[in-house]
Design brief:
This protein folds into two domains: about 100 residues, Phosphorylase Kinase, domain 1 (2-Layer Sandwich); about 280 residues, Aminoglycoside phosphotransferase (APH), C-terminal lobe (Aminoglycoside 3'-phosphotransferase, Chain: A, domain 2, Alpha-Beta Complex), CATH 3.90.1200.10. The termini are far apart. It contains 14 helices and twelve strands. The strands form four sheets. The protein has a five-stranded antiparallel sheet with strand order 1-2-3-7-6, with helices on both faces. The structure holds 5-S-methyl-5-thio-alpha-D-ribofuranose (SR1) and magnesium ion. The site of 5-S-methyl-5-thio-alpha-D-ribofuranose (SR1) has 8 residues, from helix 6.
Length: about 400
């Protein structure tokens, strides 16, 4: 007998199976192999496999609190709706780069989607020294397409403002406002770093020039509703195979500054590059990673320019001086956001395995010190790093062993 599942409660492997029976997706719904496979900070993720056909799907469900901290940190379930609606919007422009949504249930705060288990998580792949030559083109195109098409350059102002309302995402934005832009820059209890790093961390906290710039970046994040961001575009939100790239998890989506998605992606590539200083044969890895950053930006700028030139909707896109100015703004913002993400992933609440799994503790501390110095430098000097070459030179400087 099918049990009716229509009121929110966190799924178990049993109830998620009952729920999926109601959707007529499988031919043999009584015989599914169901596992909870979520390893993220916030949600439950179930994989359901039909052994007879080898077909499988994913059911992702939001919990009413942050799993990484516990029930003391409540979170709105609306993020499940935000995630599935933004996946649907992204699928219109980059269907090959996002998972296919099969069903959404707002009441149960869940999204049923394509299973990507033939893909691997990019972060783990980069830690294992694997290189994905198509990654930069894919991510550059993903960012340009999803952001241009949800900006005022492409949308009627009424449509844009309606979307801004729909994607107002206060709880998840607050996480970023606190964990990316605030707590790591002050002596706050959510921070997490070894005592050996404290002298360098204290330099961050006492650097007024740095705090001024981070404050400016935070207010940009709070106020500049330029386009519908992914909002959490780190290397754990990207699945890869040799040929395919899929961007998952846009639950942090909201209208913010375009440079934010680029900055988070750059920062997580740089964090991986820093971690390679711990291995002897790191030169090849470092040039591949820097090339990934370069190719991502070049693809982004080309795609964004193409879309700009094709659009006739906003009269100012015909005024030649505006595109270079806007691209420079995105670039400068991206470098600042890169710096904030590097710092928060080194000393804030949510770390990255790239740095934390460096086995030799002394080396780990030395690399984390470099991460803090590079992050601070990028934030403070972002308006002087006019070109890709300036930026990569700065990163190369920090990576010199
Ligand atoms: C409490 S959530 C911590 C982090 O995990 C998410 O993926 C975001 O990056 C967030 O900052
Ligand atoms: Mg996530």
């Amino acid at each position: 007998m099918i049990q009716v599942v229509n009121q929110y409660a966190p799924f178990t492997t049993h109830t998620v199976g009952e729920f999926v029976k109601t959707l007529s997706i499988f031919d043999h719904p009584n015989n599914l192999i169901i596992k909870e496979i979520g390893d993220g900070n916030l949600n439950l993720v179930f994989q359901l496999v039909e052994p007879e056909t080898n077909r499988s799907i994913i059911v992702k469900q939001a919990l009413p609190y942050a799993k990484v901290v516990g029930e003391s940190w409540p979170l709105s379930l609306n993020r499940a709706k935000i995630e599935s609606e933004s996946l649907r919007i992204h699928a219109k422009v980059v269907p090959d780069l996002v998972p296919r949504v099969l069903h959404t249930d707002h009441e149960l705060a869940c999204t049923v989607m394509e299973d990507l288990s033939e893909h691997n998580i990019l972060r783990t792949e980069l830690i294992s020294n694997r290189h994905y030559p198509l990654l930069a083109e894919h991510i550059g195109r993903y960012i340009a397409q999803t952001l241009f098409t949800t900006s005022d350059f492409a949308l009627h102002p009424f449509v844009k403002k309606e979307l801004v309302q729909k994607f107002t995402n206060p709880d998840l934005c607050k996480i970023t406002e606190d964990l990316v832009f605030t707590d790591p820059f002050f002596d706050h209890p959510t921070n997490d770093f070894p005592i050996e790093l404290r002298p360098t961390v204290e330099k961050v906290w006492s650097d007024e020039t740095l705090l001024t710039e981070v404050g400016i970046l935070k207010f940009q994040f709070l106020t500049q509703a330029e386009a519908l961001l992914h909002g959490d575009l780190h290397t754990g939100s990207i699945f890869v195979t040799e040929q395919s790239t899929k961007v998952i998890d846009p639950e942090f989506a909201f209208f913010g500054p375009i440079g934010f998605d680029l900055g988070q992606f750059f920062a997580n590539i740089i964090l991986n590059a820093l971690s390679k200083l711990a291995i002897t044969e790191h030169q090849v890895r470092l040039s591949e990673l820097l090339r990934t950053i370069e190719r991502t930006w070049i693809t982004f700028a080309q795609e964004f320019t193409k879309l700009w030139e094709e659009t006739n909707h906003e009269i100012y896109t015909n005024i030649p001086g505006i595109l270079p100015r806007f691209l420079l703004k995105i670039w400068t913002d991206a470098i600042g956001f890169t710096g904030c993400e590097i710092i928060r992933r080194t000393i804030g609440l949510a770390h990255v395995a790239d740095l934390d799994t460096i086995e030799d503790f002394h080396t780990q501390i030395k690399i984390k010190e470099r991460a803090l110095q590079l992050g601070s430098d990028l934030i403070k000097s972002r308006t002087h790093l006019y070109s890709l070459a300036h930026f990569t030179q700065r990163i190369k400087g920090a990576l010199r062993s």
